Amino acid sequence: MFKGSIVAIVTPMKNGDVDEDKLRELVEFQIANGTDGIVPCGTTGESATLTYEEHCKVIDIVIDQVKGRVPVIAGTGSNSTHETIYLTNHAKEAGADAALVITPYYNKPTQKGLYEHFKAVAEAVDIPIILYNVPGRTAVNMLPDTVIELSKIKNIVGIKEASGSLDQAAEIIAGTNDDFLLLSGEDSLTFSLLCLGGDGVISVATNIVPDMMAELVDSFFAGDIEKARSLHYKLYPLFKAIFLETNPIPVKKALYLMGMIEDDIRLPLVTMTEANTEKLRKVLLDLGLNLKN
Which residues participate directly in catalysis (predicted)? Predict the structure, then answer.
């Protein structure tokens, strides 16, 4: 159910507030172009700077707009177990299909602490949970042995793996049951992780090129490995360009250049520099995208 090309959707803003109309338009753009699932309030959705009210509102809007056409995996993680349970419970009550729960950031829990955190969330809220490991943003790396133990909890169904280590991903795949999902958390490693036995990607790039990302993943699973490989190399410059600055600065700038959202991002992040914007613009034009700004 939670396989394929899944978008970590941006939270469009206007004058500093959530732009509901544009968010609904982005959802439609994704579904129309073959995206297999939508993640609101992930890192790319600026979850760290949304208020609780906004966080819940964004999840509600996406669920309402999707109307069951694709799965909604709500980002509900926090560096507080109590807050994580609160947000995860809201996602369940709102009708989300699953929750994406990041490792607690800043406090740097031990592996035992990570296990107990996710166990507590899973026991408190009966909803499918996808773990999210991104040590570059959280300062803690959830090791394969911890993931393997967590996979034995009934409603922990998979992991978004963004450690950057193919070895770590391979250990998780080898040590878990076949029905435990491993989703790439880095666009540039998607093809490699599919080759290792991964199930898809929760993607930043899909915000910009949902059709191409869907085609990459669909081609792989259809057995056309060469086509998937070719699309990987075609999209590789974009995978790098959207991390010229801290995510989601570049992806929001790209969507602005495409005329899809306002050029608005919340402090402490700021809009992309002119020099990097020009680099990004060239990559987008090379992909044949129609820019309006």
Answer: 132 (proton donor/acceptor), 160 (schiff-base intermediate with substrate)
Residue 153 assigned ligand-binding role:
no
pTM exceeds cut of 0.90: yes
Assess whether 132 carries a catalytic annotation: yes
Q: What is the pLDDT along the chain (293 residues), one digit of tens a residue?
A: 899 999 999 999 999 999 999 999 999 999 999 999 999 999 999 999 999 999 999 999 999 999 999 999 999 999 999 999 999 999 999 999 999 999 999 999 999 999 999 999 999 999 999 999 999 999 999 999 999 999 999 999 999 999 999 999 999 999 999 999 999 999 999 999 999 999 999 999 999 999 999 999 999 999 999 999 999 999 999 999 999 999 999 999 999 999 999 999 999 999 999 999 999 999 999 999 999 99
Task: Say which of 86, 105, 115, 132 is annotated catalytic.
Answer: 132
Instruction: Quote the domain boundaries for residue 141.
Output: 4-224
Say whether 176 counts as a known binding-site residue. Answer: no
CATH of the domain at 26: 3.20.20.70
For residue 256, indicate whether it is catalytic.
no
Q: Cα(232)–Cα(239) distance, rounded to whole angstroms?
A: 9
94: number of CA atoms within 13 Å, CB side? 28
Number of structural domains found in the chain: 1
